[in-house]
């Protein structure tokens, strides 16, 4: 008697994101072993990431240098201006053009040979900070075409230090990490980023405060009336930071610190950062000091550690997009960007993770107008569309190993159905392999060319298509299977070429073979 065909359905495949840390033998089928150039969309589907489009025309001063720092100045009247750095210059973005800001301080223009600035703004003034350089400001109340040193602003008081770390919070600027002092936080007077003595300005010497010996300040963050001072191996938490004269050290964390200044991002009600052991949640770390510590990057821990170990930490950049619900961490040397979903945490507290390849932004910033900007060679890029500028990019996804519920039973693969959303004339290479061997069988299917008219077509062994008024096209793509094994891995690869694309469901039909 012929064996019946057994269906196996994987709904919302890859819903848990990548898992490169646990044994592939016992992984849930909701994990992926490869998910490149993907995101987990708001419906829980594996979907192609967006690409980027140029936000500006070419600028001769920037040329092909990378845009390395992006910020948005919100003036006191609500006017928003995007500013950025690249090469040896400062720029502002307006009407699709980058305008070079010229030096207008009245003295000798600074010589800039490095571009590792950190941006902050306060009271209508944009500021850029970098170790070994006087802080630079763009103050449109004085000039909309020039920049100056912060210490050249009228009314400057005290020494303006050449700090590498700066934060605008609670009505003042906090700064730290000079070439000669990595244990002191200085703070400006209230609403006066150019006044560093008198009033409520002051400093905080941490040499006798670090709970576990000496450390060096690497980053600052603010959340819920608290000031967080990150060392490489420790974190200090001060409460009452809105009044520095009475703020108190309320807590400290030993053994965990921040290793990359630009990895720190405020994520809604939390702060995420890169530590020696991966990406961590600051709020969760505080809550769980006496319990096993959980990491945001747990499921890609080993891969991330390898990539970070070969990187210059000053080149590690991160960005948070509230609109897209993603935290991005770029490791330029490895040409990878780790994408952590911020919508939902997995049961162990880790984030659903994918990896982007072929794109390594050098800066990130989300504007109040909900545009997510990235730093590119010669351009600010807007995270939008489904091309990297004008180039296609390859999306790949591979499941964990699936045993159909009976690991000792050989299964004969008869047919694969792939339900996708989006894509027009999109060629998809479907691959499958057996028994933990990287010997893949493959075949190709193509989505129909979409039209503006609603349609529904059915073919028993090819595709069925439904397009609705929303413009999203649902395709059911069919491919005959081949060969057999006890466990199966399934994957697909496709070039993203201007259209959104996601996978809703995978249906696998098999027959039982020998035991």
Mean pLDDT: 93
* Class from secondary-structure proportions: mainly beta
Shape: elongated
Measured between the Cα atoms of the first and last residue, the distance is 16 Å
Share of residues in helices = under 10%
**Helix count?**
2
The CATH C-level name of the largest domain is: Mainly Beta
From the alpha carbons, calculate the radius of gyration and give it in angstroms.
26 Å
Number of structural domains: 2
Outline the low-pLDDT stretches. 452-463, 466-470
Q: Strand percentage, roughly?
A: over 45%
CATH architecture of the largest domain: 7 Propeller
Please give the number of β-strands: 42
What about the largest sheet?
9 strands, antiparallel
Which fold does the CATH topology of the largest domain refer to? Methylamine Dehydrogenase, Chain H
Structure description:
- This protein is mainly beta and 515 residues long.
- The protein folds into two domains: 164 residues, Jelly Rolls (Sandwich); 260 residues, 7 Propeller (Methylamine Dehydrogenase, Chain H).
- 3% of the residues lie in helices and 46% in strands.
- Strands 1, 4, 5, 34, 37, 38, 39, 40 and 42 form a nine-stranded antiparallel β-sheet that branches. The protein has an eight-stranded mixed β-sheet with strand order 7-8-9-10-14-13-12-11, with no helix packed on it. Strands 2-3-33-41-35-36 form a six-stranded mixed β-sheet, with no helix packed on it.
- A hairpin with a 2-residue loop joins strand 9 and strand 10.
- It is elongated.
- About 3% of the residues have low confidence.
